[in-house]
Amino acid sequence: MLVHLNRQPVDCPTASTLLELLDSLGLSDRTGIAVARNDLVVPRPRWSQTALQENDSITLIQATQGG
C-alpha cells in the first residue's frame, strides 16, 4: 500500500494501522511527536486503531527545543 509521509511516497505493504507504519519506520517510540492522517490529528492512544488506506496523507511533526 502506498501512503504519503510528509509528502514523500512510502510503500508500506505490511502496515494496516498508523502504529504499524510508525513501528516499521522506527518512529513509534519517539516522544514529542504529533501525527495527522489526512489533516486530522490522531492522538497517540488511537494510533493502533487508526486504519490506513491507499494514498493516505500522513504528517509527522517533531517538537524541538529552542527560543
From TrEMBL:
Q: Which domain of life is it from?
A: Bacteria
Q: Which SUPFAM superfamilies match?
A: MoaD/ThiS
Q: Which residues cross the membrane?
A: none
One Pfam family linked to the record: ThiS
UniProt protein name: Sulfur carrier protein ThiS
Q: Which NCBIfam families match?
A: thiS
Q: Which organism is it from?
A: Spirosoma oryzae
